[in-house]
Amino acid sequence: MTPTRVITAQVSDTGLVNERRAHIAQAAARVFRRKGFHNATIRDIAVEAGLSQGSLYNYVRTKDDILYLVHQDMTAAYARDVERALEDVTEPRARLHAAIAAFIHSMRERRADIALIYQETHALGEESRRAVLAQTQAFIQRFAQLIEEARAAGMALPGAGPLAADIVTFLPVMLSLRAWRLRDIMPGDAAEAELVGFLMRGLGIQDGV
């Protein structure tokens, strides 16, 4: 199980806590994008979430708690995108292709959120940072598993070396961090297709999967 941070809540209803924390994380992300983490206040986040500060403190205690929840929410979102794409795909090479395409699409669709977490990760406390890195490691390992399943199925993947899963899960981030440049080069859908093809060829799988 991927390590997570335990954030104490003053409310005993687990379902309500999860629902409110997701709502707070989404509101906080909007505030952080507008003002930056350091300039944002707990009050700003409470107002954006439609809560009083007192009510907000029932679910989180610090800005670090909130930033951690933002990271957790976004990481879970793109991991869900990948798993959803795999639901009806059984052939290992096709599964790897579907996962890569879904992750790339998620990076473009969620580009504002991804840029935010890359900009603000340094602001996390040590415990939160360790938990976030553990979640990232688990996501990388998911792609390592998909690559190994494709290899075990008898498909030659000459490009799938020790860093393959890291490359596959890092290169798509350029669609978020370089959006300012890429929008002047080619349409988003074309950029996605270009990147999918590039990664698949790098792994040794030709187009047309």
Automatic annotation (TrEMBL):
Sorted UniProt keywords: DNA-binding, Transcription, Transcription regulation
InterPro entries: DNA-bd_HTH_TetR-type_CS (IPR023772), Homeodomain-like_sf (IPR009057), HTH_TetR (IPR001647), KstR2_TetR_C (IPR041490), Tet_transcr_reg_TetR-rel_C_sf (IPR036271)
Pfam families attached to this UniProt entry: TetR_C_24, TetR_N
Alphabetized Gene3D superfamilies for the sequence: Homeodomain-like, Tetracycline Repressor, domain 2
SUPFAM superfamilies in the cross-refs: Homeodomain-like, Tetracyclin repressor-like, C-terminal domain
Domain HTH tetR-type residue range list: 18-78
DNA-binding region as annotated in the record: 41-60
Name listed for the protein in its UniProt record: TetR family transcriptional regulator
Organism: Sediminicoccus rosea
